[in-house]
Amino acid sequence: MTASLGDAPAAPSAEAAPRPNTLQRIAGVLMSPAQTFEDVARRPDVVFPLLIIVAISVITTLLIVPRVDFAATYREAFESANMPPQQMERSIRIAAAFGKAIAYFGPLLQVVAFAVIGGVLLIAFRVFGGEGDFKQAFSVTLYSWMPLCIKSVLATGVLLTKKTMTLVDLANPLRSNLAFLADMKGRPILFSLLGSLDLFTIWTLVLVIIGFAAISRLSRVRSSAIVISLWLVVVLFKVGGAAIGAARMQK
């Protein structure tokens, strides 16, 4: 029997379209975030974007941490405390060893940090009537973090031009914000505030807004209000920490 016109094969549905891989999604988030996050909302993934972020973090850590002079960083802080010489040297060794250990464990701590950030954002959006589950929130958080991964790679390239460095050098290696206008030691509060207004951070916030609007089904205006409010709380704590540290140094 010959096939009738009604038996013609149907056009492939959207569900049959090939699923973009992680690298394609990363490119999509950077180039066309609205469309990409709609796809992430439908089919969230966590493992591969997380592995890419952790791999970048591990590589940058292995390249940078051996060049950091932790002892010099903590020596200046302990000298202002007027400690006896022997006690100061012992405290410097302990603080330097602890600081280096924390730096090497940083990539693993990032996994927990991303889970917490995604969870907090999900709770905030659900409180305001949004939809979504934890896997979607975790996936959107990871893909939204790509601008800060780019910043990390660029900062590593700048820092590798130095043979040795202190933690102060790590604070703002790229001039992607106005923190370079303030002295980190002399005006730590202003340095912290200006450092928060970073181009890569703003780019990340925009992606978070778009991504969580996609999974929550809230408007981008409401998504913006939620994300920016939470970010301002983080900035407040960051500036507050700088203020506390400055007050302790003056004692």
What does this structure look like?
71% of the residues lie in helices and 0% in strands. The protein is globular, with a radius of gyration of 23 Å. The chain has one domain (22-250). Residues 1-8 and 10-14 have low confidence and may be disordered. The chain has 251 residues and is an all-alpha fold. The chain has helices at residues 22-31, 33-42, 47-64, 70-79, 85-127, 134-144, 146-159, 167-171, 188-196, 199-216, 220-250. The termini are far apart. 23% of the residues are buried.
Tell me the number of structural domains. Answer: 1
Count of β-strands = 0
Instruction: Flag low-confidence runs.
Output: 1-8, 10-14
How far apart the termini lie comes to 95 Å
Total of helices = 11
Residue-averaged pLDDT, rounded?
A: 86
> Which oligomerization state do the chains in this entry correspond to?
single chain
Categorize the overall geometry: globular
Topology of this structure?
Blueprint: H1 22-31, H2 33-42, H3 47-64, H4 70-79, H5 85-127, H6 134-144, H7 146-159, H8 167-171, H9 188-196, H10 199-216, H11 220-250
Helix pairs in contact: 1-2, 2-10, 3-5, 3-7, 4-5, 5-6, 6-10, 7-10, 9-11, 10-11
How would you sum up this structure in a few lines?
With 251 residues, the protein is mainly α. 71% of the residues lie in helices and 0% in strands.
Main attributes?
single chain, 251 residues, mainly alpha
